[in-house]
Write a structure and sequence with these properties.
alpha+beta, six-stranded antiparallel beta sheet, 35% helix
């Protein structure tokens, strides 16, 4: 089932004071962004907030399930957990959970950047040498011996 525009509108209204919240539909669901940072996904009109090691326990304590989809080789868990239903009636609490998800997303982005920098540093500090790109060779000019084929009609 696809994500309904009404459901996305409801979420946008509840999270209006969080920042500039936008939705991008894809793969039958939608990703939610606040000022350009992804912090939630929606699948079948169910809201899932981004989590990390710190917030994971909060979701588990509430008995909330992690988002899982069926990949080519089996189930794949993503770092998103179902939002409690009560949040749709409690705007202040909805904002609190959304801010935590936004923080988890920002922490994850910083972590990925640090890992990328560390990997790049290990290459320059004696790891595998950087891969060199092959140069594109220019075509040699035609000689008088090479005739240009003209299409026949």
């Amino acid at each position: 089932m696809a994500v309904s525009n009404g459901f996305l509108d409801q979420i946008a209204e509840l999270l209006a004071s969080l920042g500039h919240v936008t939705a991008r539909k894809m793969f039958g669901g939608a990703s939610l962004y606040c000022d350009g940072t992804i912090f939630a996904i929606v699948e079948d009109d169910v809201l899932y907030f981004k989590g990390d090691e710190t917030s994971k326990r909060r979701y588990e304590d509430e008995g909330l399930k992690q988002f899982v989809y069926e990949g080519k080789t089996g189930p794949v868990s993503m770092p998103y957990w179902r939002a409690p239903e009560r949040l749709f009636d409690e705007q202040d609490e909805m904002l609190e959970w959304a801010r935590e998800a936004l923080s988890a997303s920002a922490n994850g982005a910083r972590s990925k950047t640090a890992k990328t920098r560390k990997a790049a540093a290990s290459v320059t500090d004696g790891g595998a040498p950087p891969v060199k790109r092959a140069k594109t060779l220019a075509k040699a000019p035609r000689t008088s011996m090479q005739k240009r084929k003209t299409p026949t009609r």
